[in-house]
Design goal:
Layout: H1 3-6, E1 9-13, H2 18-30, E2 35-38, H3 47-52, E3 61-64, E4 67-70, H4 72-82, H5 93-119, H6 122-146, H7 162-167, H8 174-181, H9 187-190, H10 192-201, H11 205-210, H12 214-228
Parallel strand pairs: 1-2
Antiparallel strand pairs: 1-3, 3-4
Helix pairs in contact: 2-4, 5-6, 8-12
């Protein structure tokens, strides 16, 4: 029995969670075996989730040999420190800091606008759409700098890694943002590097396995909007 098979790894998540998708992609990239437990946040949070993440009560939760770890970026960094089968973060300290900065930007800026597109309307939603386009412009610039103007395929350079994993799950939500926001994300015309990057990432087996279909994400988002939108 190999080392990875001896480890007890479990993840609690839900189908359309971009943050849960991150962890699944990371585990696939590292070649780790794991157990997956689907949670239904639209009805009731499970007792196990509330027990393992009593502070934020959010998904995903990563369980390693009985010990829970929360927050997707922290989980990715934990797996990097625990298993050396493939390093997700860059090897150089400055590059690691840069990857963490932009991953934090995605969570604080891009995701904030994404959530408001789904759960708001009228001028609040219009402002969220404008902010999403600004965030994409910033990420296009970051990819341009980090990939040498597109000469390298990923944010990490030649290798698919931490920052790629942090952002690519949102590709499964692009159709939802466009449908619910009634607008078009101008990837080909305004963000050509991101457009090409998304297509490259979507060819990876880890990404194919982790990302649900855009139609299933839209169905989930519509249920989310029905439950949480404040009229």
């Amino acid at each position: 029995m190999g080392l990875f098979e001896m480890e007890q790894v479990k993840i609690l998540s839900t189908l359309a969670s971009s943050f849960g998708m991150r962890v699944l992609i990371g585990l696939e990239e590292k070649g780790l075996k794991y157990e997956y437990q689907e949670e239904d946040l639209l009805t009731k949070k499970s007792d196990l989730l509330l027990q393992l993440n009593p502070v934020h009560k959010k998904l995903p939760v990563f369980i390693h040999n009985g010990q829970p770890i929360c927050e997707s970026l922290i989980i990715l960094q934990y797996t990097d420190e625990t298993w050396d089968s493939k390093q997700l973060l860059p090897s150089k300290p400055y590059d690691r800091a840069l990857a963490r900065f932009w991953a934090d930007f995605i969570d604080k800026k891009f995701f904030d606008s994404a959530l408001r597109i789904v759960l708001s309307k009228d001028e609040d939603q219009e402002q969220a759409k404008r902010e999403m386009l600004e965030s994409l412009k910033a990420l296009e610039g970051a990819l341009n700098e980090m990939s040498g103007g597109g000469s390298l395929p990923f944010f990490n350079g030649k290798d698919f890694g931490f920052l790629d994993i942090a952002f690519i799950p949102f590709a499964s939500w692009f159709h939802t943002f466009e449908s619910m926001g009634n607008f078009k994300l101008p990837f080909e015309s305004e963000y050509p590097l991101l457009d090409a990057w998304v297509k490259r990432c979507m060819e990876r087996e880890s990404v194919k396995k982790a990302l649900p279909s855009p139609d299933r994400v839209l169905e989930y988002a519509l249920q989310l909007r029905k439950k949480y939108l404040v009229n």
